[in-house]
Amino acid sequence: xxxxxxxxxxxxxxxxxxxxxxxxxxxxxxxxxxxxxxxxxxxxxxxxxxxxxxxxxxxxxxxxxxxxxxxxxxxxxxxxxxxxxxxxxxxxxxxxxxxxxxxxxxxxxxxxxxxxxxxxxxxxxxxxxxxxxxxxxxxxxxxxxxxxxxxxxxxxxxxxxxxxxxxxxxxxxxxxxxxxxxxxxxxxxxxxxxxxxxxxxxxxxxxxxxxxxxxxxxxxxxxxxxxxxxxxxxxxxxxxxxxxxxxxxxxxxxxxxxxxxxxxxxxxxxxxxxxxxxxxxxxxxxxxxxxxxxxxxxxxxxxxxxxxxxxxxxxxxxxxxxxxxxxxxxxxxxxxxxxxxxxxxxxxxxxxxxxxxxxxxxxxxxxxxxxxxxxxxxxxxxxxxxxxxxxxxxxxxxxxxxxxxxxxxxxxxxxxxxxxxxxxxxxxxxxxxxxxxxxxxxx
Length: 443
Hints:
443 residues; alpha/beta; FAD/NAD(P)-binding domain; 18% strand
C-alpha cells in the first residue's frame, strides 16, 4: 500500500486529505501531521504570539477582527458551496469565524479527522534506505519523539507563518511597540495611538484599515514600492519609505518626519521549511511561478515530494484543491510526469511567461489559466475560472473606488449563479464580527 504523509492541516493539507477521501478508488494510506491542536492552519485563530504553549513558534498570523479581503465567491470550493454549508446565501466578505466554519464544514463532512496526528511537530524529513522517506516528529502532547516511513510527502504547511522583518536604523532604541503583522492580534489595542504601517500589499492595506476602524488616532503608511494609491479616509496618510528612527520620530526619504507610538511591519513572509533535508527543501521567491515545482506542485529534484500553496496568491482555496487533486493523481499513477529536464524547462518557461505579464489584471488571468490547467487534468469539478477572474478584477476596481467600502459589494457564486446579498452592516461600522452577528438577518 502506498503511504502518503501530509505536513500541515490548514487549507492546503485539508484539500489534500479531501482529495484522497473523495476518491473511492484510492487505496493510499494518508497520514497528516499538524503542529497545532486543531485543524484550520492560519484560520485556527490563537491569541498567542511568539511561542505557543509547547515552546514552538506560533504558526498563526490571524488577527481577531480579520475579514476576508477578497470575495468569498473567488475561493469557493467547487464541490462544497457556501450556500450548501450555510443553507442560504450570505454576503461576499465573511469574517474569519465564518470562513473557518466553512472550511471545517467540508472537512467534517469528508470524515478524515482520524488521519490527522495533532500536536505533532515535524522535525525532519529525510530519504531512507528503503527508497522512501522517514518523518521524525515530536509528539507535543506526550513530549516524545516519533518516526514513521512513507512513499510520498506532501508539504502543505504554507508560507505565511515565518515573518520577513527588515531592519531600519533606530529599531534598537525605538520606545514604542514594534511588531511584525504575524504578531498583530487586536487593532483595538492601538485606539488613540499613532501607528506606522510598513508595506504595500494586502496585509498593509488591511492592517491600516483595521487600525482606522478601531480608533487609532492616525495611521501613517510607508513602503519601498511607493504609495498604495487608495483614497484613504481622514486619519490615514502615506509617506515614502522610512530611512531611520530617532526615539519615536520616524524619518522618511522625502525629509519629512512623524512621531509614532507603534510600528507594524507588514513586510511579508519567508518560504521556510527547516524540517526538510537540504536536497528536499523548496527554495523560491514569492511569485506566481515558483521555482523547482513542476505544474506548481511536483518538486523537480524528487518527484515523490509535492508542495501545495507555495505561490503568491490571487486564487486560494479552489487552487489548493486543484493542486491537491493533481498531486493525488500523480501519486496514484494516473498522471505520467515528463523527465527532469522537461520539468525544469516547463518551470523556466512558465517563469518567463509570468515576467512578461504587464499588470495585476494580467496576473489574475495568469493564475486563473494555471488553475484551470490543473482542473482540466483531473476530475476536480470545473468552477468557471473566467467568472472568478472577472470578479477579482471587479474587486480591484472596487478597492480603488473605496478601500474602506469595497466589502460592501456583492459578487456572484460560480457554483450557483446567486448574487450575494449586501451585508446588513457596512464593514466600517461592523465592530462585532462574530459568526452569530454576521449571519443574523443576512438572508
